[in-house]
Amino acid sequence: MFSFVGKDLFIENVKVLDIEKKYKTATYIYSKNKIIQNYKAYHTPLAESRRSGLICFAVKTNPNVSLLKILAKLKSGTDTVSGGEIYRSLEAGILPEKIVYAGVGKTAEEIEFALKKNIFMFNVESFQELEAIDKIAKKLKKVAHIAFRINPDVDPDTHSHIVTGKKGTKFGIPYDEALHAYAFAKKHKNVLPIGIHSHIGSQILDVSAYKLAAVKIKKITDELAKNGIQIEYINCGGGLGIAYKKDQKVPTPADLMKEIFEVFDADKKFIFEPGRSIIGDAGCLLTKVIYEKSSGEKNFLIVDAAMNDLIRPSLYDAYHEIIPIKDVKEEMFKTDVVGPVCESGDFLAKDRVLPRLKQGDFLIVTCTGAYGAAMASEYNLRPHLAQVLIDKDKMTLIRKRGQYKDLR
Ligand SMILES: *Cc1c(COP(=O)(O)O)cnc(C)c1O
């Protein structure tokens, strides 16, 4: 996504400093062709496997409608977790028959909305939810396609806030209640169980956790088949990690599919719900140094982006690579990169060795496409950032910078 031509940093064919000239900072920037490349990294091995399947982009990672339109053109589906995300998907031109809907707390209003829009499938997370869907579907004279989200009790090696497939999390149906759940669904006439779903976590860097989950899910589908319940769709969830650190090795979607396809018979259909691995490294955050200062042993670069714009470092202690837009021959120094928000937890990077950036210099925080703008707030009454899409040599403003008069 990035390239240096001499000292100038480019995103696709656009010089980053030209983006700054036009749109100022801080600004989220996305590369259209990187998004397409990331989507194809799923689509190509799936097509070549000759298994049928559906790729459903996880909207919660980045719900910008212009970005969803790119994916809609590629015939992507979406994985949604609220009525708002279903609405947004349809607005972007995603086909309803490619929308799946997860979440532990779907309200009656959301379920009714989803049914009226004829989405493809509900990923059901509790017995009471199943009853609610059945009741509302009956009222609307519809039959809802469902999968149970099963918690396979595997433990991917990732941050504890983003583990979802282990015993004792709020997500899904416990593994040993899976058969009971499908038997329960069978007793309800307005739901049709056609799938099984598991999503084991996020930023997963070792595909063996998926394999473990797949083997456990296969056991359930085999048992169900014996009881006359044929599961057509295996929904493998999302969660594949990306390289937040330079030169970090990450598994590809092809690696993931290889592990999973080995487990299941050829007639099964598959759903993948990638979020981060589609949009994460296709986005970055351009920010400017407002002030430099030192306190005790430490140096600080105070920049015009903060935890309200990008909360991942503060929330998960997440690491994002920083690219200084500065001649690398400069003297190096160790510094924290912090925002203006009045919280000591407000930082973008800690103890980084960077060329000695000065007031007015620019830097890029990489891999902010997922869970960046999506999780932003106006805390400290800081207006939301501008978002710009790069397509070869073209820049398009896809979200206007917030204005004071619009602050909530
Ligand atoms: C968040 C989420 C995803 C996407 O996860 P990534 O780690 O961003 O790929 C997929 N499915 C469900 C159910 C989710 O909640």
Describe this structure in words.
- With 408 residues, this protein is of the alpha/beta class.
- The chain has two domains: 2-30 and 281-407, Lyase, Ornithine Decarboxylase, Chain A, domain 1 (Beta Barrel), CATH 2.40.37.10; 32-278, TIM Barrel (Alpha-Beta Barrel).
- The protein is built from eleven helices and 21 strands.
- The protein has helices at 16-23, 32-49, 65-73, 83-91, 108-116, 127-139, 178-186, 208-226, 253-263, 276-279, 312-316; strands spanning 2-5, 8-11, 14-15, 27-31, 53-58, 77-80, 99-101, 121-124, 144-151, 173-174, 191-197, 233-235, 269-272, 283-295, 298-303, 322-325, 332-338, 347-355, 362-365, 386-391, 394-399.
- The strands form three sheets. Strands 4, 14, 15, 16, 17, 18, 19, 20 and 21 form a nine-stranded mixed β-sheet that branches. An eight-stranded parallel beta barrel has the order 5-6-7-8-9-11-12-13, surrounded by four helices. A three-stranded antiparallel β-sheet has the order 1-2-3.
- Strand 14 (283-295) and strand 15 form a beta hairpin.
- Helix 5 packs across helix 6 (127-139) and helix 8 (208-226) packs parallel to helix 9 (253-263).
- It is elongated.
- The model has no long low-confidence stretch (mean pLDDT 95).
- Pyridoxal-5'-phosphate binds at residues 58, 60-61, 79, 81, 102, 199, 202, 237-240, 273-277, 370.
Question: What's the topology here?
Answer:
Elements: E1 2-5, E2 8-11, E3 14-15, H1 16-23, E4 27-31, H2 32-49, E5 53-58, H3 65-73, E6 77-80, H4 83-91, E7 99-101, H5 108-116, E8 121-124, H6 127-139, E9 144-151, E10 173-174, H7 178-186, E11 191-197, H8 208-226, E12 233-235, H9 253-263, E13 269-272, H10 276-279, E14 283-295, E15 298-303, H11 312-316, E16 322-325, E17 332-338, E18 347-355, E19 362-365, E20 386-391, E21 394-399
Parallel strand pairs: 4-20, 5-6, 5-13, 6-7, 7-8, 8-9, 9-10, 9-11, 11-12, 12-13, 15-17
Antiparallel strand pairs: 1-2, 2-3, 4-14, 14-15, 14-19, 16-19, 17-18, 20-21
Bound molecules: pyridoxal-5'-phosphate.
